[in-house]
Amino acid sequence: MVIFERQSDLKSHLESIVTAKTTVGFVPTMGALHAGHLSLIEQSLTDNDITVMSIFVNPTQFNNPDDLKKYPRTLEKDVEKIKTVSDAVIIYAPTVDDIYNGKTESESFNFDGLENQMEGRHRPGHFDGVGTIVKRLFEIVKPTNSYFGEKDFQQLQIVKKLVSKYQIPVRIIGRPIFREPNGLAMSSRNERLTPEEKQKAAVIFSTLQHAKKMFGTKSVNEVAKYVDKLFQKQKDFKLEYFEIADESTLLPIIRKSKNKKYRAFIAVFVNDIRLIDTISFN
Ligand code: PAF
Questions:
Q1: Any bridge partners for residue 148, and if so which?
Q2: Domain CATH number, residue 238
Q3: Among the three residues 175, 198, 222, which one is the final residue of a domain in this structure?
Q4: Which residues, 6 or more positions from 207, have their beta carbon under 8 angstroms from its beta carbon?
Q5: Residue 59 has pLDDT above 90, yes or no
Q6: Which band of pLDDT confidence, cut at 50, 70 and 90, is reported for residue 23?
Q7: Ligand 1 nearest atom to the CA of residue 149, by list position
């Protein structure tokens, strides 16, 4: 297993092994790896000659300094987990300076409005940070294919928009959410939950499943009211948003239309830990 801390070393290594015919798979992460991340590596190893994974807690995408401070950083454990899948993964775990060179700031992006919905509305600057780091990482790694989890579905759509706007020659592949046995979507932030909170957080996915059932017969308003009421009764939870949106534009739906794909999105605070989840309604 090779681990690079500096982009210059990673680039030299890649230059020495990549030819015009080599396919490079890339899995960008912020570490605290779980089974969902490992499945992205497996997919990349299946599809490509070489797999690179980055582990970098990107400061510019955190709108809340406390969230950045508390974000789990578990590099040694992460490396052990990657080894259980394969020894052949190339790891890039840079310092903030290696990426930002003393200027830890985001570029500003226009993702045709995708950035103004849900996460973008509640986390100002978040998608400028994501766009900045993903674009930089693509420039360093130059991947053929890159893999993203569907839990961050809005991020996935934004990364697709980024590569089409900037004509970056990489195929973006979204992969399904991995869940705990109780339905909770796997997330690095789950590491911060107590066992009791983890158990209780099952309500997030069960609510989405119930909302999906209701969507068949009830209005959008009725579904949203049900979710609102349900979370008002949960003492340790605070609902930040629940939205049913068009999968491609991410715009909230007003009225159902048959030929469109819809998806529900939710963000909930469990005490001070913010969790998101999503479910397809089709
Ligand atoms: O999804 C994540 O872990 C991050 O947003 C990403 C894509 C690695 C960028 O920092």
A1: 174
A2: 3.30.1300.10
A3: 175
A4: 227, 230, 231, 266
A5: yes
A6: very high
A7: 1
